[in-house]
Amino acid sequence: MNGIMLVGSAIIIFFLAYRLYGRWLLKTWGFDPNAKTPAYKYEDGQDFTPASKFTVFSHQFTSITGAGPVTGPIIAAMYGWLPAFLWIIFGGIFFGAVQDFTALYASVKNQGKSMGMLIEQYIGKTGRRLFLLFCWLFSLLVIAAFGDIVANTFNGFAADGTLVTPNAAAASISMLFIFVAVAFGIFTKKVNPSEKLRFVIGIVLLLIMLAVGIAFPIYLDRMSWLYIVFIYIFVAAVMPMWILKQPRDYLSAFLLLAMILGGVVGVLAVNPTINMPAFVGFTVGGKDLFPILFITIACGAVSGFHSLVSSGTSSKTISNEKDMLFVGYGSMLVESVLGVVSLVIVCSAATGGHLPEGTPFQIFSTAVAGFFSLFGMPHDIANCIMTMCVSALALTTLDAVARIGRMSFQELFTVDNTQEMNTVQKICTNKYFSTIITLVFGYLLCLGGYMNIWPLFGAANQLLSALVLISLAVFLKTTGCKGFMLYIPMIVMFCVTLTALVEAVYGIFVKLSAGQFTFTVDGLQLIVAIALMVLAISVALHCGKELINPKEKVKAELNH
């Protein structure tokens, strides 16, 4: 087996899935290209801000494409390339893309409401509160995991104190991205340039930032960057979408798409041989394929976090209902392509059936930088650009989840009549307070390190997917739409993720019995894990009751 076969077949399959299955879903559920979307109905200059098709796609794609599609497939390759490849293909088409698109569809059709508010409308207030609490706890895990990833990526010093220029240059470029994005956002808001002009300006700005960042690297240690990153995501969480988040995601999209294109072209040019067996075994290194494979490969196949982006931010910027398929279904399939490329890279770098040493990011970055070098790009510059791409993956997820975490916390205390809110509710629904409380707890979890958080994050992420799928199934049934395509994914994800969470809790108790338990790390994780399981089961029971005995059909907000 070679790289061209895997990447080429994946691209063809995903293209056909988009054209056939994706369009069938949109046609089955119905859309109105003339309907006034929530972005226009409730435009407020903050969260509800109409944007072009590609701008919304950029936001969706860069927000959901975190470390997962690189990290997951590379780790899961230990079972062989075939299980990972099949899960990315089938998971991406029938699980992840369906979930992302359905969440976006449901939100756009219901005033741009988030998943929590949708659950209240179709399931009840108790289900909504439980789900929002689950989402908020989950957002803490994402902030902790990705905050640590970004800080480590930006760290300009090696363990022995030597300078790490690619990291420092990537940090410099990232800081430039923030300030340039604000200027670009103001420019596009005031001038409203054509899509072509915006594209050209974006490319030029990207090249300038890369050149300046590489020429003037910023050398700071991990903790310094951790503080800076948390300050940034606080600002990003409270600022209007159009002034920072949208333009930054728009510019980042070029970088990430170029990275994927570079990986695909590199595979096509080199046609690497797959040096891993198709299947190694059901148990590798004491880890069972079930449920580890389905937890490890999340963002490349299905990720509950994506639904929060679809319903929390993207739905509030969609300008036309016909764009929903491209944004929701299409962005997930592009991410799945990245997952396949990552899988091919690690399997081609294997020797004697053993995976290469190094972190997933190091393996991926080194390989793609090597591809860029084949086309005449100096290796140092290619390495710096790849480091920047990796940090962009995590940073765009970070600022998105900080905003979603803030909104989830606010919605927990929101009441129908704002005049009846007590003092505590008024404080907790304040966007500045809710952002601070979210980031404080995220920071505390972050101190435990990325590797300690990732297993719990992966299980919680997929459990969120199960909850979202069952909630969306209720929405479809209640509104008279076909929803059978969600039943198998939601059952599979629920079984997989509860199993993984139970194993995670068991592992923490093993540490406790061995005297290796640390409360600030293991204790917090144990509390969060148990809380997530209890909340998940409670939400599932509420949703299950409504799925069996749905309320009367609700069509007030749907445009069929």
From TrEMBL:
Topology with respect to the bilayer: Multi-pass membrane protein
Domain of life according to the entry: Bacteria
Protein name per its UniProtKB record: Carbon starvation protein A
Species assigned in the record: Megamonas hypermegale
Compartment annotation: Cell membrane
Xref: PANTHER family: INNER MEMBRANE PEPTIDE TRANSPORTER, PEPTIDE TRANSPORTER CSTA
TM helices/strands, residue ranges: 84-108, 129-147, 167-187, 199-219, 225-244, 251-270, 290-311, 332-355, 361-378, 432-453, 459-477, 484-509, 524-543
InterPro entries (alphabetical): CstA, CstA_N
